[in-house]
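Treating backbone geometry as a discrete language has practical consequences that deserve illustration. In the encoding step, the backbone of a single protein was reduced to a row of integers, each denoting a local shape. The amino acid sequence and the backbone structure tokens for this protein are reproduced below.
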Amino acid sequence: MNYTIDKVLAGVTVEEAEPRVREALAAKGFGVLTEINVKETLKKKLGEDVAPYKILGACKPEMAHKAMMAEPKIGAMLPCNVILRTVENGTEVSAIDPLASMSAVENPALMGIATDVKNLLTEVIVDL
């Protein structure tokens, strides 16, 4: 099962892609709540050098609220992570597929919400 929505931005670095990703998320009503620079963290904690890799924790408050009302513990699976990572020809941007992640929770009320969020995240990725 594919669990991400992906697009490669050819010839673009992670640093160049990040503002574009943040703007595309904002255009669909998402804010970035968390940010993890995996490259820096692995260097600092393990002394490992890896290619640029960043995780942005995106949230659309209305949708998060609906999900929490349908399933109070769903916060353990939020926010929607979007990763930016260096690949051979540029930067790959991948967003979580909420249908894949929410399928682990046996609550049919979440599927409509997850579908709406997936559609929005797909538009974000396509718009890049």
